[in-house]
Amino acid sequence: DPSEIGVPMDLEKLLTDRLAPAFSTVAGVPVDPVVRRSQRADFQSDAALALARRIGRPPRAIATEVLERAQVADLCSATEVSGPGFINLTVAERALGGLVSALATDPRLGVPVSAHPETVVVDYSAPNVAKEMHVGHLPSTVIGDAAARLLEWLGHRVVRANHLGDWGTPFGMLIEHLADVGEAEAAQELSMGDLDSFYKAARTKFDADEAFRERSRLRVVALQGGDERTLRLWRLLVERSERYFLAVYDLLDVTLTGRDFHGESSYNDLLGPVVAELDRLGLLRESDGASCVFPPNSVGRDGEPLPLIVRKSDGGYGYPATDLAAIRHRTGELGATRLLYVVGSPQRRHFEMVYAVAELAGWLVPPARAEHVGFGSILGADGRMLRSRAGESVKLVALLDEAVARATQLARSRNPELGEAEAAEVGRAVGIGAIKYADLSTDRHRDHVLDWERMLSLDGNTAPYLQYAYSRIRSIFRRAGVTARPDAGISLAEPAERALAFELVGFGAVVSEVERSLEFHHLAGYLHRLATAFSAFYERCPVLRADEPVRDSRLVLCDLTARVLRQGLHLLGIRTPERM
Ligand code: ARG
């Protein structure tokens, strides 16, 4: 059923496919026509200019001959060679209208299911047990979830891997503190979500009390040795923390569930075999008593080779060994070919080294590949790392609660007709949406400033602006009691209608670009352009008051805009209330 698979609806690509053969004939070699949206016409190709030198002919002559040969009559109402040799293309209203009609009957809105579905592991969120989630975990959680949603929608098999920090030396002191406090007491304390005070109490004792330090050290040994009581206490910590994280994910509308926890501890049994295999492959070198691999791509500032330590001098395994075991598991057992690591940019170096070692060991070979989906920090209004008044990192729940409270208040004042329950629901959708969108709409490689005014504003490139555009369209249909007829003929006589149509048919191209780049600000920017084009259209073109057949055509444009906004925001993990 083609409607389940979706129809590719990429005008740029359609035009490229028509110009490419003509260019190649003229040039005698394959040529990419580089078709782009343009101010001068609808689309433009500048390829003749670059080609001129290569084949020694004037660019205008090339462009003219290309246009004589290219079969574009069904797509373009006008073509011309302009300036030094640009090709300008004006899309025919019929062709554009035909694409809009195809979109209207396509449940996938012009976004086909991938022709090459893969198993993709998305490693994201990954907080640490018995520690509060803070703002630093927000980008990983939000970007990772958008990646999982988008790739899944494109038909990939997505494995969500929440690489929980649930193992290592800090657990000695945490378990020892837990034993001191008593299981029942501690369970109580931890279920209130006050993970940080528990952690700090343990830390304070550890720093001040020599005997406690010694007990903690022995506790680590007991934990690694599989001591039953120790494991029970450890499980209590993990289980309470997981419950807390799930509550945060729920508040954040993040799709991670209890089944997606694949903590560091789950790789314990694989660490020995991983290091043994590295040894067998002759990749291990001893350095200061530790077992290391020296990947070819890593040198320090002084040109010295940098080691990846896979077994420490005390015989313990650490973070790098766990990540190697995870790669081997993901490609070997899960059959994944795309491994995504949505982790802050400070860990870039770590991952480069881990990938390089995994490649040497044969655990990461084409078509399998790994990508570090890095991101910058969230800054406060002062341009520094966001901190609480006490100078600590800001708890994620505190931030989310504030967002929801602010947005609920705004919802009440903007629309007094909303009942209390609906205002609360809108406040939640808008507050959480605003926080997520602020992360997703900026280039993830950069730091960005958390600015409440800006991100909650109904103007500009914000979630509330897009949500408002959506609810406004829905209210047109609700108030008039009409629905759009997907089979209506499409008329695009007004420039504002044409401009909106071009945005609508561009959804597929944007989604497939983001599938590759995981740069969600391109999708956000697209949705913003779409909503802006809709506003201009709605200002200039009456919908309900228009005569048929224009009225039906405009209703289709309205409905499609709402559907694309809704789907696009859904991929970003943002809700679209029907009323605001
Ligand atoms: N728990 C780690 C941290 O808080 C992040 C883990 C990222 N994922 C991984 N596979 N190493 O820094």
UniProtKB/TrEMBL annotation:
EC number: 6.1.1.19
Subcellular location per the Swiss-Prot or TrEMBL entry: Cytoplasm
Known catalytic reactions: tRNA(Arg) + L-arginine + ATP = L-arginyl-tRNA(Arg) + AMP + diphosphate
Domain Arginyl tRNA synthetase N-terminal residues, every copy: 9-91
Single GO biological process annotation from the record: arginyl-tRNA aminoacylation
Enzyme class per UniProt: ligase
Keywords of this entry: Aminoacyl-tRNA synthetase, ATP-binding, Cytoplasm, Ligase, Nucleotide-binding, Protein biosynthesis
Domain DALR anticodon binding residue range list: 466-580
Family: Belongs to the class-I aminoacyl-tRNA synthetase family.
Xref: NCBIfam families: argS
Subunit (UniProt): Monomer.
UniProt-recorded name of the protein: Arginine--tRNA ligase
Species assigned in the record: Micromonospora rhizosphaerae
